[in-house]
Amino acid sequence: MVLTLTPNGLYCPAGDFHIDPWRPVARALITHGHADHARGGHGAYLATDIAAPVMRHRLGAITLDTILYGEVRQIGGAGVSFHPAGHVPGSAQIRVEVAGEVWVVSGDYKLEHDPFPTPFAPGRCHQFVTECTFGLPVFDWPDPAEVAREINAWWAANAAEGRFSLLGAYALGKAQRVLAMLDPSVAPILTHGAIEATNAVMRAQGFALPETRHVTPETDLRAMRGALVLAPPGALSGPWARRFRPASTGFASGWMRLRGVRRRRAADRGFVVSDHADWAGLNRAIAATGAETIHVTHGYTEVFARWLSDQGHDARVLRTEFSGETLDDGAEP
Amino acid sequence: MKAFAALFATLDQTTRTTVKVAALAEYFRNAPEADRLWTIALFSGRRPKRAITTTRLREWAAERAGIPLWLFEDSYGVVGDLAETIALVLPPPSTTHDASLGAWIDRLRALKDADDATRKAQVLAAWEGLVLLERLVFNKLLTGGFRVGISAGLMTRALAQALNRDEAELAHRLMGDWTPDNTTWADLIESHDPADRLSRPYPFCLAHGLEDAPERLGPPADWFAEWKWDGIRGQIIRRGGQTFLWSRGEELITDRFPELAALANHLPEGTVIDGEILSHDGTAPLPFATLQKRITRKTVPKKLLAEAPVILMAYDLLEVAGRDLRAHPFADRRARLETLVRALPEGTPLRPSPAIPFNSWNDLAATRATTRARRAEGLMLKRRTGPYHAGRKRGDWWKWKLDPLSIDAVMIYAQAGHGRRANLYTDFTFAVRDGDALVPFTKAYSGLTDAEFRQITAWVRKNTLDRFGPVRQVRPEQVFEIAFEGIQASPRHKSGVALRFPRMARWRHDKPVSEIDTLDTLRAMLARYG
Questions:
Q1: What pLDDT shows up at residue A281?
Q2: CA distance A113 to chain B (A)
Q3: Are A165 and A119 within one domain?
Q4: Is the confidence at residue B193, as pLDDT, over 70?
Q5: Distance separating alpha carbons of residues B179 and B170, to the nearest angstrom
Q6: How many CB atoms neighbour CB B29 within 10 A?
């Protein structure tokens, strides 16, 4: 087996390394910087050069080696390379080749346009380990340009009535993608500290983000009525958000495709923006690999594996501890 | 349809009442008459009859989406709403339709008499020309489940604003079992002739729960107290030589309670009484479970009539000799009620709910403590000078319910909810200890905050021991205080008891499973309160 599942995570015996392990290991290859994939406590890390700054920011002083997209490294008996996953800046699918057999671990990925991450690059493999956070046919992402129009129209209507627009989005990836959708001529854009910190890291890397203002206790909010406030989803229900009054609230998430989820969050508006592949995207990505065996990890694993089996694939469920895009727990992936 | 779908979107996209009412009022000002009438009908729970089974709709949607039926069903399990699931799985539309809401509903109703192939062709053609939101609305019309977070009260307020009319008067007009098929806009909203309104009930006056100490209500002499009976609230109407019995849910239930229908023959013409339909053996109320046997029966066999007799425990008199008494002070209405009942022949199953005399709030609190022995739910307090309001208004009527019984139990099964609770574990089964065994005794699905439901959902996902379809067996670790209003023996349940209104009062993070209550505790409660 090129990769096996151990209590620590996905393990490659030929190269003696783990991919996105959830318990401390000696050597970890990391697909991207979200907390359920890049955890602290490993001996040595390997990630793309683009993912590295955010990982250093989040994990502090770690032993981190970087690799370019497409560059091949020999680690023990395994040939390893990282390929764009389109999820967040620097995110990668990790390709592992041992004695001619090729496995690809997708990490998290999406096929939709996003100005910041390098676009998803399909690749052939024998066995494909795929996420399926949104692996149900009800998840079909709308055109991002249309969603951008919806967000800006909501914001403009709120601004015209002197209301704040409180928008919940993950600090890494989603927030910056949403920033690029905004029309800065409407009103100022304010940010929560967690988002502003990631913005700073990305700006230092050369990503062109629109101007944002970090909300501090000194910020004069009376002068900022009509502003759009970008914050992690969890912050919207906490005391931090109470300073913005009056406000309309919204969330940017793939879960907003479901009316029930949006109503449960008591959000005024839900905008369907996801950094994970939708149903069609998952099926397209899987078909492009030409893989004989598909291992499905986090998401609607049982259902999606059954669907793939129906389609004639050898599909299996791999029980990992990744969480995908969550809204209910308030945890960030 | 586009205007109605836009209204639906606006109502759905805000949690603010003022915005909802304004959007509805705007719609009522501009929509054609037939659409307005249907909108009122839909938002007050009057749906077009289902022309197509949901089974066929599922099959057609799955086929059109190119997915197997099992995958459609699994998706439905996650979405939690059939109309929405269908709308979501279908491919994007290829054409556009532009017909009014009324025209769509007419088309749907025509399908009732069509053959299966025609139905299928029509429904697929409709889907093909509607965008996501319009599809959702269309499917909700098809499936007949139209809940959109607008109460009949808010809808009436918006209508009153749009038409510049009195809200209470409109509320009264909208009562009863009318549908757009048997009425018109002119008859329902504009007519001045009450003759066609013989059966129409008054909107029920409802009470808020008492939150403060009763002393805050002022002098006891200003208030009338009576038991809050545990039956079905109802209104009995005698007009034009006919009798109508309505439930609070605006259902006409005259045929289900023939003894009450017969009693009304003794009532003078033009009488309306508000009361509680209660199973009663002539001396005391029977347990609610006895009444339950009657509720679902459309026809009542003699044997059941004898086993589960009912009376009307009268609370209020709303109409005398065809005159609306609702603006009169309660004390006056109550006096007239007693006079009216005294004139009835002996043995008629109608009596005034007994007044509870009290000189101090302390006295009344002592009486309230005997609620369970009376088989009541608590007390009702009514301001003697208060009118009979339409709907739930603060100030003149209060319910002062008994504190619930409670027991600490452990969660053993969890199931996901529907609608806004879809994809969230909200329906739980609880057990008490019996020696080393855990005995399930109740389900509960309310009482926690949304944040707590999210927290318990995350826990359930990580602590599942086994799955039985949608049900997950979880580690017996989470302890909850279960509150309930009453307890009865039940041979159908493994524990031997059935609870009334069980809900989660508190999540006992502080309590280990070893300290939960036992089956003996439940049995002792049954002996004491059952």
A1: 97
A2: 20
A3: no
A4: no
A5: 16
A6: 12
- Residue A155 touches partner B, C-beta closer than 8 Å: no
Task: Give chain A's domain count.
Answer: 2
Cα-to-chain-centroid distance, residue A99 = 32
Domains annotated for chain B, with CATH where assigned, are 2-143 (1.10.3260.10), 205-401 (3.30.470.30), 405-529 (2.40.50.140)
Residue A145, both tokens: 């340009």
Option in B72, B74, B422 nearest A260 (CB): B422
Choosing from B20, B120, B140, B228, the catalytic residue is: B228
Token pair in block for residue B42: 């839909």
A44 plus A152 within the same structural domain: no
Nearest chain A residue to B90 by CA: give it: A138
A146 and chain B: CB distance < 8 Å anywhere?
A: no
Structure ipTM: 0.93
Q: What's residue B273's pLDDT?
A: 97
pLDDT, tens digit, for every residue of A21-46?
Answer: 999 999 999 999 999 999 999 999 99
Partners of residue A98 on adjacent β-strands: A101
Put residue B378 in one of left, alpha, beta given phi > 0 → left and psi -120 to 50 → alpha. Answer: left
Output the CA–CA distances (angstroms, integers) from residue B5 to A303, B367, B479, in the order listed.
32, 53, 44
Decide if A237 touches B, using CB distance below 8 A. yes
Interface test with A, best of B423, B424, B426, B467 (most A CBs within 10 A): B423
CA-to-CA distance for A141 and B132, rounded, in angstroms?
12
Residues of B in contact with A306 (CB under 8 A): 70-71
Which residue is listed with tokens 């004898």?
B306
Could you tell me the two tokens for A212? Answer: 């944002």
Within 10 angstroms of residue B180's Cβ, the number of other Cβ atoms is 20
Q: How does pLDDT run across A3-19, given as a tens digit for each residue?
A: 999 999 999 999 999 99
Both tokens of B237, joined, read 């109407």
> A329, A326, A318: which is closest to A20 by C-alpha?
A318
Residue B418 has pLDDT above 80, yes or no: no
Distance CA A268, CA A285 (A): 34
Contact A307 B71 (CB under 8 A): yes
The answer to whether residue A257 neighbours chain B at the CB level (below 8 Å) is yes
Nearest chain B residue to A259 by CA distance is B420
Residues A179 and A131 occupy one common structural domain: no
Residue A322 lies in a domain: no
Number of Cβ within 10 Å of residue A266's Cβ equals: 12
Nearest-CA neighbor of B213 among B400, B434, B424? B400
Residue length, chain B? 530
Best B81, B82, B88, B457 member to test A by mutation, with max A CBs in 10 Å, is B88
Examine the residue annotation and report whether B228 is marked as an active-site residue of this protein.
yes
